[in-house]
Design brief:
With 119 residues, the protein is mostly beta strands. It has a single domain, classed as Lipoxygenase-1, CATH 2.60.60. It contains no helices and ten strands. Strands 1-2-10-7-4-5 form a six-stranded mixed β-sheet, with no helix packed on it.
């Protein structure tokens, strides 16, 4: 996994991307969902999310030669009134890491979207 710029990555077909997500702010029920390749589900607290990059399932175009792109969206929910925060590390099986976070802003959920260019 190579970071092109924050939120945009170049990965290889078959590379496994791992998300290690932790609730680090105000006490809150762990509420994280993800979606990619037209499917998604909740991520149980304490479990890593492993996503295998599959160029044949990527439907987006890319400005990288011979690549297709796909987006992965993380949706963070908060049961606290304020001060909630999630921190996570993204790691590629072929190297590379990226750290990020989502901070609670009001009572609604927060979302973060990443774009993966698969070569």
């Amino acid at each position: 996994m190579h970071t092109i710029q924050p939120g945009f990555f170049r990965v290889t077909d078959g590379e496994v991307i791992t998300f290690d997500i932790r609730s680090t702010g105000a006490p809150t029920l762990f509420g994280v969902n993800f979606s990619i390749f037209g499917t998604g589900s909740p991520i149980p607290e304490g479990q890593l999310l492993h996503v295998t990059m599959d160029k044949s399932r990527a439907t987006g175009s890319s400005n990288i030669s011979n690549a297709r792109s796909t987006t992965l969206t993380l949706l963070f929910s908060f049961s606290s009134n304020n001060g909630g925060r999630y921190d996570w590390t993204v790691t590629g099986s072929e190297g590379g890491t990226f750290d990020d976070f989502a901070r609670q802003a009001g009572s609604g959920p927060e979302s973060v979207t990443y774009t993966f260019h698969i070569v």
